[in-house]
Design goal:
Layout (H helix, E strand, L loop, with lengths): L1 H19 L5 H54 L1
Length: about 80
C-alpha cells in the first residue's frame, strides 16, 4: 500500500506542476475528479454494507450469549 500511495503522490505532484504551466486540459482534471468521486462512493457503499453485516452478526452473537447465559443460570438454580 505504501508503494501505491507514494506513486499516487508522485503522479499528483507531476500533474500539479503541469497544471501550473497550463499543460493539463481542464477536461482531463474534471474527468479524474469524477472518477475519484465515483470510486469514493463505491468504497463508501461497500464499507456501509460491510458494517451493516458485522452489526447483524454482532447482534446475533449477543442474542446467543444472552440465551446461553440464561440457560446456564437456570441449570445452576435447578441443580441446587
Amino acid at each position: 500500500m505504501s508503494f501505491v500511495k507514494k506513486l499516487t503522490e508522485w503522479l499528483l505532484e507531476k500533474e500539479e506542476e503541469m497544471a501550473k504551466k497550463c499543460a493539463v486540459p481542464m477536461e482531463e482534471i474534471e474527468y479524474q475528479i469524477a472518477k475519484v468521486k465515483a470510486q469514493k462512493e463505491k468504497i463508501t457503499k461497500e464499507y456501509e454494507e460491510a458494517i451493516s453485516e458485522l452489526d447483524s452478526v454482532l447482534e446475533r452473537l449477543e442474542k446467543i450469549k444472552n440465551i446461553e447465559t440464561l440457560r446456564c443460570q437456570n441449570e445452576q438454580k435447578e441443580s441446587k
